[in-house]
TrEMBL record:
The lineage of its organism: Bacteria, Pseudomonadati, Pseudomonadota, Gammaproteobacteria, Cellvibrionales. It is a multi-pass membrane protein. GO terms for cellular component: plasma membrane. This is Small Multidrug Resistance (SMR) protein. It comes from the Bacteria. Keywords: Cell membrane, Membrane, Transmembrane, Transmembrane helix.
Length: 130
């Protein structure tokens, strides 16, 4: 693989991670504003989702997730799934958990930190040239 192909391919993986994380985080942000969906009546549920899907922020999140899928397909057209996927998942874990902790004050336990460390260590081992 040429240097140009390498940069493009892994750039698409990183674009996928960033766009996917952005989509998840802005959707969570808006849901936090609206509160939990009520399933007591169909009308309440429909009103909730109508408010959700007419939010410009939600639309940017959904667009980001859609574009992330395109970036992912571009990456997979040049990389092995067994190489790209572990990196994408590991980076996504770290990014989403970090931003959720900082922005939404979601708890990060010691066990969660150990799990993230193990995932990242596993990705490191995957690329280690023995």
């Amino acid at each position: 693989m040429s240097a140009k192909d390498f940069v493009f391919s892994w750039g698409m993986v990183f674009a996928y991670v960033l766009l996917n994380a952005y989509g998840a985080l802005v959707i969570k942000y808006k849901i936090n504003q609206l509160g939990a969906v009520s399933f007591e009546s169909m009308e309440q549920s429909l009103q909730y989702f109508l408010r959700l899907f007419t939010s410009p922020l939600i639309l940017t999140g959904l667009l980001a997730i859609f574009v992330s899928a395109i970036a992912w397909m571009a990456a997979l057209s040049r990389l092995d799934l067994s190489s790209a996927y572990p990196v994408a998942v590991g980076l996504n874990f770290v990014l989403v958990i970090s931003v959720a902790f900082l922005s939404f004050r979601e708890p990060v336990s010691a066990l969660k930190l150990v799990a993230i460390s193990l995932i990242l260590f596993g990705v490191f081992l995957l690329y280690r040239d023995w």
